[in-house]
Design a protein that fits this description.
This protein is α/β, with parallel strands linked by helices. It is built from 5 helices and 7 strands; from the N terminus they run H-E-H-E-H-E-E-E-H-E-H-E. The chain has one domain: 3-Layer(aba) Sandwich (Oxidized Rhodanese, domain 1). The longest helix has 36 residues. This is Rhodanese. It comes from Ferrigenium kumadai.
Amino acid sequence: MSVATRSSHHETHSAVHALHGFVAESVFAAAREIAQEDGLRYAGDVTPQEAWALFSSGAAKLVDVRTARELQRVGRVPEASHVEWLTGAGMSQNPHFIDELESAIGTDDVVLFLCRSGKRSVAAAEAATYAGFRHAFNVLEGFEGDGSPRQGWLNHGLPSVHD
């Protein structure tokens, strides 16, 4: 590869990287604006498709808050962190959630919370925000959605693995 070709390739790569950064910032800004208008107690909501784009580009961390049993039964997002929001036979709130979250990611990281349908992930985003995580977002629709074939991470054909 010639020097000119390498330089052109580097410039193209840099432009693509800058575009991804611009798109990520646009998604975050729109989500924050809607969250503020709606009075949400966390940074905002993103769609499953936006979440995958942000996570796969490295612009955000993805934390699945479903139970270990749910991950085994239904599948999970590859490379996502896992911190249960509810735990135990009684499905009570995990008393170590924030400590486990702090072990998995930093408080300054952009974090996207995912659950089955989008309810527990809202609670997790609120708790994380209250604990000092400044960039806590909820993934709308969750991993499975509400039963509609048009909702949820899986129904959008986004990457998943089944252990």
